[in-house]
Amino acid sequence: MRKPKLYLETSVWNFCFADDALDRKLTTLQFFEQIKQGAYDIFVSDMVKK
Question: Is the pTM higher than 0.85?
Fold first, then answer.
């Protein structure tokens, strides 16, 4: 089975620091942990890489 390919736009990263929206922060951090474990192939804008 192929891994899902996802494009992450810049606002996704902001939720890692959303102390005023703890549920979104935790969900986002869990999502990034899944990425680290290889669950998804991700793509980002070249602007995010800079």
Answer: no
